[in-house]
Amino acid sequence: MEDKKLLFRIRDLKQYFPVGKKHLGKEQKFVRANDGISLDIMEGETFGLVGESGCGKSTFGRTLLQLYKQTGGRIIYYGRSVEEFAPEYMGKILSNLDHQKKHCEELRKKAADMREKYEGMADGAEKNIYLNHVVEAEKEAYNKLMDITALIGGLYCAEDMTKIAPVFQEEYKILSEKRALNNKLATAKEEDKAALEASIKALEDKLPDVKKKIAALKEEYKNHADFAEYESYLDTGINLSELNGKEMDKLRKDIQLIFQDPYSSLNPRMTVGQIIGEGLKAHKMFKKGEEEQMQEYILKTMEDCGLAPYFIHRYPHQFSGGQRQRIGIARSLAVKPKFVVCDEAVSALDVSIQSQIINLLLDLKEENNLTYLFISHDLSVVKYISDRIGVMYLGTMMELGTTEEIFAHPTHPYTEALLSAIPTTDVEHKKEAIILEGDIPSPINPPKGCKFHTRCRYCTEICTQAVPQLEEIEPGHFVACHHKLGRKEEKN
Ligand code: SF4
């Protein structure tokens, strides 16, 4: 995994949906569909997400694509850089650095005070419950610190932000003007291109001077005790949740979705050609007058996805489930995405068709260097297609690791139960299925402490009080449990 490039860094992602209207004097209730999810997705990998129906897998996929506005946390996308994209939020932070830093320092102080109080508390239930608040406060402070240091790095340690801010604002102004011109260039007429290119070049020529000013400032502060630490937080990724609608529309081309239901996800009034061409038009991939090239491109995409060229004028109702799913895949891949969320993409298909579609997805991934988030409740499918697996329960990531590691050494009691339920024809090595007692609790009012404690056979008192945090127990293998399986030293 180490040699792979990071594509997404997700930290403490929360997606809550309000339930009913807020009444005076009554607390607003929420469905906590995603409750503090953290993980990295690497370029070129297939990340499998498993869990029971209703555990928040699809919500996670859709929040990642920003189809839902997330409630909290960070989703950093590395498919493009902030320098290239110059998002508006970058300008807002830089124009307000002094205030931003003050607010961040307040959050950090609050978290540090809470941690100190926690350390001084006597062991027991109260201390365990208080730890949950400490962790939440620390995450909030950390996220704020990351927002700022991602842009200014080590210069966060400067006492006087009014000296730092103008230089970064100057850089941002150049970057945002350059981005605007690049956008114009993409759709410009041939005769206007030379002038636009000259303007972009003129802006690029201004950049080295600003970079020199930033380097000089860093030279001044480099001996500060915290400089190196803050400098290591410099980040070129884009914070998706901070993008405005227009900016997100531009990125939608990079991140696509294949839906579960191949029936309702296709417009019955559109032909296959129109369905695939819709995204191409929306993202202006072909200019006016290039209709012929676009038609050829659609036919090529159809062929890549195993659809015959004469299907182009047919309507969705004229196809089988497997063929419809191929249309859905062609529609997503036509815009040349970097990342695709496959949301139960084969669940609605017959087993024989499932394998055809999975093999198609694997071939297309290879040819186009795609990255998949493969969401499924079917562990055998996920095992076949995924490089790494995340196990979710009630909106929380319980275990995460490579496919081999998760299947060979399940360390979370929930993963153990899920794996034991996979049907097998191997009579000799057949394990007894672990039956999970009771229903999955309500995400409106999830159990305190470990969310799995109401159904876990290893539950002890601490499990009902303190939320277990996701910890790395082996390189790349993370588990959120107070009593990790096979780790006897922790079972006391
Ligand atoms: S923390 Fe406790 S209740 Fe939760 S999975 Fe681990 S052992 Fe079970």
- Biggest beta sheet attributes: 8 strands, mixed
Structural class determined from secondary elements: alpha/beta
Let me know the number of strands.
12
Cα Rg = 25 Å
From N to C, what is the helix and strand string?
EEEHEHHHHHHHEHEHHHEHEHEEHHEE
N- and C-termini, Cα separation: 33 Å
- Average pLDDT confidence is 90
> So what's the overall shape?
flat
Strand content: 15-25%
Distinct ligand kinds: iron/sulfur cluster
Q: Low-confidence runs (pLDDT<50, min 5 residues)?
A: none
Lateral arrangement of strands in the main beta sheet: 6-7-8-3-9-10-12-11
Give the gist of this structure.
It contains 16 helices and twelve strands. With 492 residues, it is of the alpha/beta class.
Architecture blueprint of SSEs:
Blueprint: E1 6-19, E2 29-42, E3 46-50, H1 57-64, E4 72-77, H2 82-85, H3 88-94, H4 97-120, H5 125-152, H6 161-187, H7 190-221, H8 227-231, E5 238-239, H9 245-251, E6 255-258, H10 272-282, H11 291-304, H12 321-334, E7 339-343, H13 351-368, E8 371-375, H14 379-385, E9 388-393, E10 396-402, H15 403-408, H16 413-420, E11 471-474, E12 477-479
Parallel strand pairs: 3-8, 3-9, 6-7, 7-8
Antiparallel strand pairs: 1-2, 1-4, 4-5, 9-10, 10-12, 11-12
Helix pairs in contact: 3-6, 4-5, 6-7, 10-11, 10-12, 11-12, 12-13
The chain binds iron/sulfur cluster.
